[in-house]
Amino acid sequence: MTKELETILAQIGTRTDKVTGALATPIHFSTTYQHPEFGQSTGFDYTRTQNPTREQLELGLAAIEAGDYAFATSSGMSAIVLATEVFPVGSHFVCVRDLYGGTFRYFNQLEENGLYSFEYATTEADLVALINKDTDVVYLETPTNPLMFEFDIQKISDLAHQFNAKVVVDNTFYTPVYQQPLKQGADVVLHSATKYLSGHNDVLAGAVIVRDQNLAEKLRYSLNTKGAVLSPFDSFLVMRGLKTLALRMKQATANAQAIVQFLEAQPAVKTVLYPGNGGMISFKVQDESKIPSILNHLKLFTFAESLGGVESLITYPTTQTHLDIPKEIREGYGLTADLLRLSVGIESETDLIADLKQALAL
Predict the structure, then answer these.
(1) So where are the chain's domains?
(2) Distance CA 210, CA 121 (A)
(3) Given 33, 54, 136, 170, which residue is catalytic?
(4) CB 59 within 8 A of CB 85
(5) Model's pTM, two decimal places?
(6) 245-360 falls under which CATH superfamily?
(7) Catalytic pick among 48, 183, 218, 220
(8) Domain 5-242: which topology?
């Protein structure tokens, strides 16, 4: 029977343990598995290659992103590495300019080492103009981090495929609750599962999901070879977090929409950047010299890196998540020193607004 996303999420891993009937997926810590007889396998030989707990998570990840194959990795960055290095050395990438700082740092290292080449575009029109016969991969964040630009995945995928290029989409911000890139023509979707998918700031994880069998075989080979797999316990934690993903995203969105209305009316705020859904908001203040005071006086918003947890966080990208992007590049596309980024959690919107109000008033 066809299941809605909320149902798939709530029931990830259930009714899979045929031996005991355990409702929660058991955590299989064993690193190695007995062969029943010579030449036979249970399907599990060594945990780097495959693990029963990780397998259940990967089945769930594939289902929620409308994919056929999923790979759970040891971090969001390891997912980005896996999804990038599956393409041949010498590949040419066309990318959104407003990228997570760690992604830019990795891409820059690859280019400096002569492995791949990269072109960047700030707007959708500029990105579309760069896609041509020399393009091998189009890499998108949508919404972007932290300027919240959105890109039309279907339009870009249709164009890229005319030139036999693949499209990779980082879906960390919107999650499959608001966007399923594979349904919109993308070839690869990835997540920092540390963020919304797990949702509790207590596990480091990544995910890569595809439909194409040939891509899946390359990803599986590379992941098994390099070994950046997710541990059984962390796989369990991500599954536990996924069960409430839809609820958390809806509450974070409702809170964020209320906070956007509040911020837009504040004299201390110059610009509010919000894509319409999800819990991520960026805003620019009128007086950037007041940013230390704002950060130091918040009581509920925690000044910290990362995002996507049940607790609300505030980040200063200039000195935190995007520090590795050279200043002239950052400021050239709009990531200026007056920008703050919020990851809105599931607390009371009244309390969150009150916290921002008192900090901005100082």
Answers:
(1) 5-242, 245-360
(2) 25
(3) 170
(4) no
(5) 0.96
(6) Aspartate Aminotransferase, domain 1 (3.90.1150.10)
(7) 48
(8) Aspartate Aminotransferase; domain 2 (3.40.640)
Cα-based angle 295, 301, 303 (whole degrees, multiple of 5): 45
Q: What are 15-57's pLDDT values in tens digits?
A: 888 889 998 999 999 999 998 899 898 888 899 999 999 999 9
Same fold? 5-242, 245-360: no
Is 170 a catalytic site residue?
yes
pLDDT class for 1, splitting at 50, 70, 90? low
CA 136 to CA 87: how far, in whole Å?
Answer: 8
Q: Which of 100, 174, 316, 333 is catalytic?
A: 100
Q: Is 100 a catalytic residue?
A: yes
Which amino acid is present at 361? A
Per-residue pLDDT of 123-160, as tens digits, reads 999 999 999 999 999 999 999 999 999 999 999 999 99
pLDDT in tens, 306-342: 999 999 999 999 999 999 999 999 999 999 999 999 9
Catalytic residue among 54, 97, 166, 195: 195
Specify the amino acid at residue 305.
E
The stretches of 227-271 forming alpha helices (DSSP H) are 232-242, 245-264
Measure CA of the first residue to CA of the last residue in the chain; give whole Å. 56
What would the two tokens of residue 219 be? 């990803």
Closest CA to 138 of 68, 185, 194, 106: 185
What is residue 194's three-state secondary structure? coil
Token pair recorded at residue 87: 């393409």
